[in-house]
Specification:
The protein has 250 residues and is an alpha+beta fold. It has 3 domains: 69 residues, Orthogonal Bundle (Arc Repressor Mutant, subunit A); 86 residues, YebC, transcriptional regulation domain (Alpha-Beta Plaits), CATH 3.30.70; 68 residues, YebC, transcriptional regulation domain (Alpha-Beta Plaits). 45% of the residues lie in helices and 23% in strands. Strands 3-1-2-9 form a 4-stranded antiparallel beta sheet. It has a 4-stranded antiparallel beta sheet with strand order 5-6-4-7, sandwiched between helices. Strand 1 and strand 2 form a beta hairpin.
Length: 250
Amino acid sequence: MSGHNKWANIKQRKGSQDAKRSNLFSKLAKEIIVSARQGGGNPDTNSRLRTAIDKARDANMPKDNIEKAIKRGTGEIEGITYEEIVYEGYGSGGVAVIIDITTDNKNRTAAEIRKIFSKHAGNLGEAGCVAWMFDKKGYIAIDAQKYGEEEIMETAIELGADDVRRDGDTIEVITDTEIYSEVVGGLKNKKVEILNSSVTRIPQNKIKVEEGDAIKLLKLFDELDNHDDVQDYSSNADIDEKIIEEYANS
């Protein structure tokens, strides 16, 4: 469920989410519950819920789990009340990190996230300290080893995407949040395999990170990925793909 960065895309390409399926299903269920609670249980009239269900299906989450999560969100089944919070801070090298949290205990989660940042040479900041550096957009990652950039650009722009660009082995499609679901659906209808997609925060500018800071950041991202309450995170770190590959294989 990680957000916009090369680390997320490389891990998705390697299929590492399969090893953490229970953690992933827990995060997907939380998103479905919150989406249904806020906008109702009908995915035809609740685009956020429709997106959450699509992601759950893509991850092979059992249908019964999806239906129970929807009913917990609408109140048909008793369940835990979750709260959505945004944390902002700085990682090693001074890069900005912004995190979307869904939790049933914000005090516990705040302490845990603060500890993770401190452990990896970072620190949490005040609300608003880095949010201005990011734009909320739909983000879709496609393996550039399987598809041509021109091919994807033609299809995505026709579907209404804002931008298509290549970053290393990834073709990135950026969309307005309101048409994100339609662009994802349109690409799937064209039989395009999607590595990673979400409504996330895209950095306006990136900061090049040296190897020492990069390793600390990747360890930070790893722990954020593994934390049950972290739904998404974004950073403005620009980390060399070779460093990421070496870390992923270590």
